[in-house]
Design brief:
Blueprint lengths: L9 H6 L3 E4 L9 H16 L3 E4 L13 H12 L5 E2 L15 H13 L3 E4 L3 H13 L22 H10 L4 E4 L6 E6 L3 E6 L7 E3 L7 H11 L4 E5 L6 H11 L7 E5 L2 E2 L9 H7 L8 E2 L5 E2 L2 H4 L3 H9 L14 H7 L10 E2 L2 H13 L3 H8 L5 H11 L7 H10 L8 H7 L2 H13 L8 H15 L3 H13 L7 H8 L1 H18 L1
Parallel strand pairs: 1-2, 2-3, 9-10, 11-14
Antiparallel strand pairs: 4-5, 5-8, 6-7, 12-13
Helix pairs in contact: 2-12, 7-8, 11-13, 14-15, 18-19, 18-20, 18-22, 19-21, 20-22
This protein binds one RNA strand of 77 nucleotides through helix 5, strand 7, helix 7, strand 14 and helix 13.
RNA sequence: GCUCGGUUAACCAAAUUGGCUAAGGUACUUGUCUUUCUAACAAGCAAUUGCGGGUUCGAGUCCCGUACCGAGUACCA
């Protein structure tokens, strides 16, 4: 290959073009952890002027779910990750769907077979399961390795004639990697530093399944090599099999151009320990998927996008799950992230998935969102002028943009009930006199604007010698039913003169009857 | 069981060649806002860094032991 010229200094290695890949399998909605993995890949690619590839790992035909691939592409595009090469885009290494690359894997597994680095194995799943059980009952674990393979049904133990007979007869087989009995594998993980493992603890992993498809292990090594991937950035769950992947690169003679590895910390459950799962989302009432996902049976799983999470907040939240800039900055645009991101600053320990943090980021971004956009998107049924006032009134007090619409609806609804605790504490003679006087003065206000309303309230209360603080909360209850809320003067301006008067009349009447 | 990882306040989390007083956020408490508040702003409270040893002038950081938690251990990725 053209890359033959490579076994030299590290410096030259790092100057090699940066090419990273996101390689999900289309088995359903994309887990939010996958989005983070994609994001880290993307950030590294952009930072170093490299390419981001999307490869679909659909080698498990039994788990394939239609629609998942489109979903993945849409999810990535939602958060702003653009693909330079791969499924949906094309590129020089097509196809990018592993199911369409079968012959390639067959060719390479045949190469390993020819070089005696892999072998045919005819043991059935049932036989192996039984074997595992036996071992387990004896307190040890079954391994298909240098020792046991000599007692099992494979091309190492079968005579050439028997082997040929089985193959000719079409007996199902898998191809396994022949892991050396005694050897040390070590590789440098960009996040975890040197990892070493003795080959005696590894087992002869299946490379090709009996259905003719490769396993993840073979497919990802072959493809990463062929697609000239420079950095493999993936979840920690792959760390245990990484040594075996190194062995595969070695077996193919590709070790000198092997990509660098970076195994990302896990996304942990919000409570307790363990990997974040779909169930945790149901339990905590939050999504686990970026976009709403519809299962083949029609059932739906919620998505962050539909729940009202802004994509900027999502990115910011996700990027900080396992990475930090080392400064006190917490809000980052995608551009700033591309600038600041480094693999070196990813930490090793798992990151707790704290949905409150996601909400906090959403609030921060919502606050800075242009009023005009929010008004147009979430208050389409209001006049522009009114809509802008409503947005201004609520956007710093809510977490999700759609809440602005809900708050607006509530604002225009005459209260049916009044906060009892506050009525009990604050509804007294002064409150009644003050509010009545204020109400009676309202018709004379020409421009029903917050400033003028405030001015009138001041005047009326001054005449009566009542302090503003004494009745403000009661006034709010009379108008909205609730003891807390946004700026009251602006609220009244939006509600409108007629309705404010009507509500006050109603409240005075009802509350007087109650007390 | 075995292999590989992790453990810093109530919670999240930083301290990346061992080096000033162990960041920051959330929550909580208090104050300010002559107009309330669940908002905003300000201040405050909170950690012998899982535990036990060791190396060192100096350890969250390195070494040994131990406890707990996780990941992997499939013809799934």
């Amino acid at each position: 290959m053209l890359r033959a010229n490579v076994n030299h200094s590290k410096k030259q290695m790092t100057q090699q073009a940066v090419r990273v890949r996101f390689a999900p399998s289309p088995t359903g909605g994309l887990h939010i952890g996958g989005v983070r993995t994609a994001l880290y890949n993307y950030l590294l690619a952009k930072k170093l002027g490299g390419k981001m590839l999307l490869r679909i790992e659909d080698t498990d035909q039994t788990r394939f779910v239609s629609g998942a691939e489109e979903y993945i592409i849409e999810a990535l595009s939602w958060v702003g990750i653009t693909i330079d090469e791969g499924v949906g885009v094309g590129g020089p290494h097509e196809p990018y769907r592993q199911s369409e690359r079968k012959e390639i894997y067959q060719k390479y597994s045949q190469q390993l077979l020819d070089e005696d680095k892999a072998y045919y194995a005819f043991d059935t799943s049932e036989e192996l399961d039984a074997m595992r059980q036996t071992f387990e009952s004896q307190g040890s674990a079954f391994q298909y390795n240098a020792i046991t393979r000599l007692k099992l049904s494979n091309s190492l133990t079968l005579s050439p004639e028997d082997l040929k007979a089985k193959l000719d007869a079409g007996v199902p087989y898998v191809i396994r990697l022949k892991i050396p009995a005694k050897d040390e594998v070590r590789f440098k993980d960009l996040i975890r530093d040197w990892v070493h493992v003795h080959t005696s603890t590894l087992d002869d992993k299946v490379l090709m399944k009996s259905d003719g498809m490769p396993t993840y292990h073979l497919a990802n090594v072959v493809d990463d090599h062929l697609m000239e991937i420079s950095h493999v950035i993936r979840g920690e769950e792959w760390l245990p099999s990484a040594p075996m992947h190194v062995l595969l690169y070695r077996a193919f003679g590709w070790e000198s151009t092997m990509p660098q590895f970076a195994h990302l910390p896990l996304l942990l459950k919000p409570e307790g320990n363990g990997k974040l799962s779909k169930r945790d989302g149901d339990l905590g009432g939050f999504p686990i998927f970026p976009l709403e996902w519809t299962n083949p049976d029609g059932s739906k799983a919620k998505g962050f996008r539909e729940e009202g999470y802004l994509k900027e907040a999502m990115v910011n939240f996700l990027v900080l799950l396992g990475w930090n800039p080392g400064t006190e900055q917490e809000l980052f645009s995608m551009e700033e992230l591309i600038e600041t991101f480094t693999l070196e600053r990813i930490n090793k320990s798992g990151a707790k998935f704290d949905i409150n943090k996601a909400k906090w980021f959403n609030q921060q971004y919502l606050k800075n969102y242009p009023d005009e956009d929010l008004a147009r998107m979430y208050l389409p049924n209001y006049e522009t002028d009114t809509a802008l006032k409503i947005v201004h009134l609520f956007k710093e007090r809510v977490t999700f943009p759609q809440e602005i619409g809900e708050e607006a609806t509530a604002l225009f609804a005459t209260p049916e009930t009044y906060d009892e605790a506050i009525v009990a504490a604050k509804w007294n003679d002064d409150a009644k006199r003050g509010i009545t006087a204020f109400k009676d003065a309202l018709p004379s206000i020409e421009n029903f604007l917050a400033e003028d309303i405030k001015h009138t309230l001041h005047e009326e209360l001054e005449k009566l010698g009542i302090k503003m603080g004494k009745i403000m909360q009661m006034l709010r209850v009379a108008l909205t039913g609730a003891g807390a809320g946004p700026d009251l003067m602006l609220s009244m301006e939006i509600i409108g003169k007629k309705e404010v008067i009507a509500r006050l009349e109603k409240a005075i009447l009802q509350l007087t009857v109650i007390s």
